Amino acid sequence: MGGKGWLVLFLCFTLLHLPVASADNNAASANGLTDGVSSSGYVCDPDGCSPNDKRDFWKIQGKKGDIVRVDFSGSMSNPAWWCLNDGWIGTFTMDSVSQNVDDTNPSASLSTTLSTAGEIIIKVEGGDSWCNDGFDYTLTPSIDKTNRDSDEDGFVDNEDDCDDLVGTSTNDRSGCTDSDGDGWSDPDGGWGVQNGADAFPSEITQWLDSDNDGYGDNLEGYQGDHCQYSRGYSSADRYGCIDSDGDAYSDPDPGGLNGYEAWFAHPLGKADAFVSESTQWNDTDDDGYGDNWAEASLNDSRAVWEIGQYVGNASQPDACPFVTGTSFADRFGCPDSDGDTFSDGDENWTVENGSDAFPAEPSQWEDSDRDGWGDNQTVGAQLIDDFPFNPTQWQDTDDDGWGDNQTYGATQIDDFPFVPSQFRDSDGDGYGDNLTGFEGDVCVASTPEEVDNQWISRLDRLGCRDTDKDGYSDPTDLWTSHPFGFADAFPDDASQWHDTDDDSYGDNLEYFDGQTWRTSYRPDGCRTTEGNSTFDRWGCPDGDGDGWSDPTSYWLASPGGSGDAWPEDSTQWHDSDGDGRGDNPMGTTADVCPDVAGTSVGPSSGGDRWGCQDTDGDGWSNLGDAFIHEPSQWRDSDGDGYGDRMTGHQGDACPETRGTSILDRLGCRDTDGDGWSDPTENWAAHPFGMGDAFPTEALQWADTDRDGFGDLPLGAFRDDCPYVAGESKRDVQGCPDENGDGWSNDYGELSAAIAIMGEDPAASWLTYLLIGLGFLMGAAGALVVRMSRSRATMMEQLAFDAEMKLMAAPGIGAAIPQLIPLEDLPPLPETQGGEQDAQ
């Protein structure tokens, strides 16, 4: 075999063992294609390669109306250099449509329009061509979604407001659910009635409710709203109009301002004649009193009239619903001739029932004693009966309750007609026995001692014992002291008599003793409010019982006044600096700085001490606040300048560990000082968290692809492929390196092998390949030389043997052997079973 033959065999053997990608030849598990993303593959007819993958299946999803197009581009995968005009052929199929492709027609496109959502199968199949039958191809899908109808409801997505929801709505939005089929879509989470959705999704005759009152705008539809733009809940006379009293009858609208037309009150129309009274709505006689009645006993008789109805609590029911009337005192809505509010009597309603006893006299209507004189005592009234319940008396000149009639048999006779109310003074104290008359004596049996010593009361009641002679009588079991009665609350103290708040401190601040005004004994500082204060003033409320009165608008608390600054705390009362913290050091929330106003609070309220200056108002005094100008921070346990309160301004995420991190979190350890905190158990490094993925490398902190190289394109740890994980380090860092030789895939296998051979020949596969090739070529050359020498030797031997035979022939004498030139020798026969030498 010649040298070229061996080389061809070696190359064929090598190519057959190169790795190839196996494609999916099962349609059921075909790989997916993505709109706008190219995918590549390789197919090869079994006749031309081994292993082989005759066909590849791909699939792409689409929805109704989509125009799916797939562009095919193919190229020879591995042309045989020894096979002249080597080419490839194949078929490109989408569903049932196929197109032939080959090396002269390497590009093709197929498209289809989906009538429903589904999956399209694409097949690429290799054919038998010349030598190598494999070819590479690229599929580039594209989907025209202009006419897509995702939910297949007849509305393309560009027009469908509910792409993935089957619907028939057309008015407010297209292609959304319309339960009642009126063209208006049902409301949902993102589309409410306020956006135009159907306000009545279950009622086909209604869809809009402009005033949102539950009645549809379509007047001709179910319960159509008569007042489309005026919210109302009437339902008896018309729907959806204002019903002020909630009785289902709408308010009248004579101008038609709220509805489609003028709407008058009953009886001119159907509207509510009583817009503020829910128990009445109709007024047949138009007198202001409603037709409904409140007495169940009238049900049978009133039902015959066929107006009004029984309402248990009906207001001002018209007793005469067919006759206009103005009466309302005895009964409503009946004739009242004299206009005194009492109705004229009739056969069914007499004086005994309450009708007017004087129907022609407007100033009288009742005569209780039936003496012909009226009960009405109003000034200016006529026929006034001074004794409406005594038929023997009717006039009283002095108006003392004793009648002028002196006739036999008369009662209530006045023995003192010129002294209107008195006719006897039994005890001689100057007050008449008639208690109800002028200066009536309350105590008609005063003793001579009381009269002689002028121990007689004159202010709270007349003619009773007054021990301290201040004008107010001493209390008794039947005449209690002030404030529960009118008697003297201090019967032995001439300076006090009233105690309005019943706290044992008198109301008088001073009194007149007959000669001059003097200060009263223990005057009550709060006369109308019970109290037991004793220090700043007497008798005022002292809620905490510390002796200092509670402050009021006119009695200010300390420091503005003397009142108790803490009326509910018995341990505090004064506040010298006015900061709301008491001066008593033993009291509640005692002021640590009593002479300097401050707003800091104590530990129990989240601060450090009470009543000291707190510049930022966070409760911590300036003496203890680590951040006196920042109200959201006050402590810095680790002293790193960030407050312990995580939710405050620049809150320390690691309050117990001093740190300088500022970017992902504040105040945590940052070993490399790049601003990103070191990761911890609870704070993962990037990309699983925000922590520094390179805690000891200041130029790196993020590692999006998690390959150990940082996203920042600087420094020794930079990642040249920050979004694709890789281990390359030689040409670029952090890029894919499938064979692990340190050189990225993009650098190329051969280029990497050459570079490695230059640095370390023993580490490069190319070194061994060249050595192997050199060995094979040397061996082939040696074989050729050896064969050439063997043939020459053979030729010489044959020539020698022929000459010897010639010399041995008869008649031929011995002669000197002569060599025959090679070109004069006949050719040798071919060896059986061998191969012809290469030419």
Quick tags:
little secondary structure; Jelly Rolls; 11 strands; 9% helix
Summary?
The chain has 839 residues and is low in regular secondary structure.
The CATH topology of the domain at 21-144: Jelly Rolls
For the biggest sheet, the summary is:
5 strands, mixed
Compute the number of helices: 5
Spatial strand order of the main sheet = 1-3-8-5-6
Structural account:
The chain is low in regular secondary structure and 839 residues long. The protein has a domain of 124 residues: Sandwich (Jelly Rolls). It is built from 5 helices and 11 strands. The chain has a 5-stranded mixed β-sheet with strand order 1-3-8-5-6, with no helix packed on it. The N terminus and C terminus are likely disordered.
